[in-house]
Every structure is written in structure tokens, then in C-alpha cells.
Design brief:
By secondary structure, this protein is of the alpha+beta class. It folds into three domains: 105 residues, PGBD-like superfamily/PGBD (Muramoyl-pentapeptide Carboxypeptidase, domain 1, Orthogonal Bundle), CATH 1.10.101.10; 72 residues, LysM domain (Membrane-bound Lytic Murein Transglycosylase D, Chain A, Roll); 203 residues, L,D-transpeptidase catalytic domain-like (Beta Barrel). The chain has eleven helices and 13 strands. An eight-stranded mixed sheet has the order 5-4-3-12-6-9-10-11, with helices on both faces. The two termini are 14 Å apart. The C terminus is likely disordered.
Length: 423
């Protein structure tokens, strides 16, 4: 089995520039000033440029540089997550901006004009600096840092699915790509940084300062590649980019609910439920941690084997497809898990492909396969996954679930606890 395969730069760029999400929203026509050539380049990103440089507006299209990164930080701070910040304009940033504009009553152009930028900066607390010094702590450096093997059985031998490097840990802590973190800290050996050493990081959101409001429902959009947490009036409180099922392995469609939330879940690898994998191969239990198949948190759904969870490859969120589950970055999944509870409705819409199940199946123990959604321990049991679903071949995303009930009943005999679908 293979750990989740990273996307190539070409695939990431293709996903970043994909505009199919525009089909499921109502974009307002843009009537602002015409844009001249944006002179910025990604290589110009620096703490000085972010904190004291000019802002080039309007922002949209295939552009990169300090102004884009500035907007991404502001969106992160207002809980309209752009996912993993990379300093490049694209799908995740545009969708987050669209829902910010909608929430604020601004024209929903998904472009940053002066009015949108002013409102965004105000709602983000008008920070004087968007890149700030951070002193690395002993907690940051204590590890353990673990090389994650590609084979699932080797993964199962690990003590934890830990971060592989300090750079990876810090990049997730501050919601940006490792390349962008290095760009902010030229000449710094981040992997070997010491406790007490000061580095430059984006001034990301304070989860404790999230807007007040009760999450009444989660809205999951397949074609839009997002999850919105809305209140009783339908107002979007929090927005997150997501990765959902592909056409050949779709997410469910319809109304479901959250049945449980598990922190730091283990992942149960079950060959009997995977195509392209020999049924006679042994099962495996992969330890919890940010680099296992379901990341740092699992929110089980009443759709059998489905859940909302983290990921080991945050740079792919919004740009890849999964095997039916809803993947978020680890930091977005952890934040969302703190805002929901058992029974919160989850509405899947505009799902691509034929849905595996159309309505809430109950999710109560003893109701056949629906019992799989009632997680009661710290283990997420995989039925198929994009991080660890295919032992050989082109990667995990080509594995699909076996049809019929044979695989499910076999798994039920082997494991009496809850089972879940991996991403």
C-alpha cells in the first residue's frame, strides 16, 4: 500500500486554476477598474514586503506574490480558510473570498477590489504586521520526527504517524507550504532549528477569537470543493476548502449527521474492502498522527463508512479527489471538530458521480453496515482510501470499494468496532 501520493507541480497548478466551482455559486459581474499588469512575482515575498509593501489591486487570475499572500493571511484570520497558503491566487483563495463577500454583503465577484480589501483587513483586526517573529519552543522541537514509509505494513510498525520534519510541523502550525515558510526565512535551516530560535511566520488566526455563532449545519459541496459551517439563518460562519470523492468513487448525496468526533484516530487498513488488493493480505492498524490516512481528527457521519477528517497532504486539499470522504487540512479539521457535536446535520450537494447512498441510514449500532458510522473508540477503520488504499500501481486514488456485501460482512466478523471510510 502507498501513502497518499503528492500531486505534481503541474497537477497542483491545474487544480489551482480550475474554475468549475463557479458553476455552483452566483458570481456578481465585476464592474471595478480595469487591472493593469501586476508586477509582483512569488520570489518577491518577504516579511518586509508583506508588512510595508504596496498592495496591488484588483487581484484575481493567475497571479502570485506578496499581495496574494497578504489576502490569504487575512482570509485565514477571518475563518474563511484558503487552505494551505502558497502565495498564489487560485481556486481555494477565490472561493474563500466569494463567501467572505457574501457574508459581508459585498458584491460576490470573487475578486479583491479596494472595498473588499478594506473590509477584509478590518474584519481581520487590522493587524499592523502580517508576518511576525515566532520563537520556536521546546514543544515544537521535541518530535519525534519520523520518516513515513510508503508500505502500509511498515507504517503499522511505527510508534506514531508523526511529522517527518520540523519544517513540516511548522508549516502546518502556520498554515502555509514548506516552500513559502522557507521563502520567509532565507538561509535558515528549519529542520535543525533550535528551541529559542526566532523565525518569521504569518500572523494566522487565533482559533479562540472565532466569530460568535452556533453551527446549525455543515454544507458540503462536491463540485465546489468546500465545506461551509452555517448558522440557523444560513449565514456562513466558517468556510474550508475540501477534497471530496471522484466520479468513480463519489461522496454521499443528501442529508446525514455527525455521529461522533475522534481526536488522533488510528487507521484500520482492511484489504478485504479494497479493489486491487489481495483479499488474503493481513489487515493492519496504522497509529494516529498527522501523517496517517485520516490525519489528526475524524468526524464520523451517519452515512456508513464516511467521515470528515484531516490529511497527510494538506497541499492537495481542494485540488485532488478522494475516495468518498471529506478531507480538510488538519488545522481546519481540528477547528471544525471543536465547533460541532453529535447530531449536527451534514448536507451533501452537487456531488459528482453516482452517490453510494442518498439519505441518512440511521447510523445506530446493530443496523447492519450503518453501524460503521457509530465510532466509539479511537480507531478509524478504513474501507478504502486515498492515502493508503492501493498496494501497488498508480497510487491510492485508483482504488475503489468492492461491490456487494461480502467485503462488509467479512470485515464485520473481523472487527466488532466502528469502521470508517478513508479519504
Amino acid at each position: 500500500d502507498q501513502k497518499e501520493q503528492p500531486l505534481t507541480p503541474e497537477q497542483l497548478n491545474q487544480g489551482r486554476l480550475d474554475n468549475s466551482w463557479e458553476q455552483v455559486v452566483q458570481l456578481a459581474p465585476y464592474s471595478g477598474t480595469a487591472r493593469g499588469r501586476n508586477p509582483e512575482k512569488w520570489e518577491q515575498i518577504s516579511p518586509q514586503e508583506l508588512n510595508a509593501g504596496p498592495v496591488y489591486l484588483p487581484l484575481f487570475g493567475d497571479v502570485a506574490g506578496p499581495s496574494v499572500f497578504r489576502v490569504q493571511i487575512l482570509l485565514d484570520r477571518v475563518f474563511m480558510s484558503p487552505g494551505m497558503m502558497d502565495g498564489r491566487w487560485g481556486k481555494n483563495t477565490a472561493i474563500a473570498l466569494y463567501f467572505f463577500q457574501q457574508r459581508e454583503g459585498l458584491p460576490t465577484t470573487a475578486r479583491v477590489d479596494s472595498a473588499t480589501f478594506t473590509r477584509l483587513a478590518d474584519r481581520a483586526g487590522s493587524p499592523r504586521q502580517l508576518v511576525v517573529p515566532y520563537q520556536i519552543t521546546a514543544e515544537d522541537t521535541k518530535g519525534p520526527f519520523t520518516k513515513i514509509p510508503t508500505d502500509v505494513y511498515e507504517q503499522a510498525k511505527l510508534d506514531c504517524s508523526c511529522y517527518q520534519t520540523l519544517t513540516e510541523e511548522l508549516s502546518e502550525k502556520f498554515h502555509l507550504t514548506q516552500d513559502l515558510l522557507k521563502q520567509l526565512n532565507p538561509g535558515v535551516d528549519l529542520d535543525n532549528a533550535r528551541a529559542g530560535q526566532t523565525i518569521q511566520v504569518p500572523a494566522v488566526r487565533d482559533d479562540g477569537s472565532a466569530p460568535a455563532g452556533q453551527v446549525s449545519e455543515l454544507v458540503v459541496s462536491g463540485k465546489g470543493s468546500y465545506v461551509n459551517a452555517v448558522d440557523a439563518s444560513g449565514k456562513v460562519l466558517y468556510h474550508f476548502p475540501s477534497t471530496l470523492g471522484a466520479k468513480y468513487s463519489p461522496s454521499p448525496s443528501g442529508q446525514f449527521k455527525i455521529t461522533s468526533v475522534t481526536q488522533n484516530p488510528k487507521w484500520h487498513y482492511q484489504p478485504a474492502l479494497l479493489t486491487g488488493v489481495n483479499d488474503t493480505l493481513p489487515e493492519a492498524m496504522v497509529p494516529g498522527g498527522p501523517n496517517n490516512a485520516v490525519g489528526k481528527v475524524w468526524m464520523a457521519l451517519s452515512a456508513p463508512h464516511y467521515g470528515i477528517h484531516g490529511t497527510s497532504s494538506p497541499e492537495t486539499i481542494g485540488y485532488a479527489t478522494s475516495h468518498g470522504c471529506v478531507r480538510l487540512t488538519n488545522w481546519d479539521a481540528e477547528f471544525l471538530a471543536g465547533k460541532v457535536h453529535e447530531g449536527v446535520p451534514v448536507h451533501f450537494r452537487d456531488i459528482q458521480g453516482e452517490a453510494n447512498t442518498g439519505q441518512d441510514q440511521g447510523g445506530t449500532p446493530g443496523s447492519g453496515s450503518a453501524a460503521a458510522a457509530a465510532a466509539t473508540d479511537t480507531t478509524a477503520h478504513g474501507t478504502r482510501g486515498s492515502t493508503a488504499a492501493k498496494r501497488s500501481g498508480s497510487g491510492a486514488d485508483s482504488a475503489t470499494k468492492k461491490s456487494g456485501t461480502t467485503g462488509r460482512s467479512r470485515s464485520a466478523r473481523a472487527d466488532s468496532t466502528a469502521r470508517t471510510r478513508t479519504p
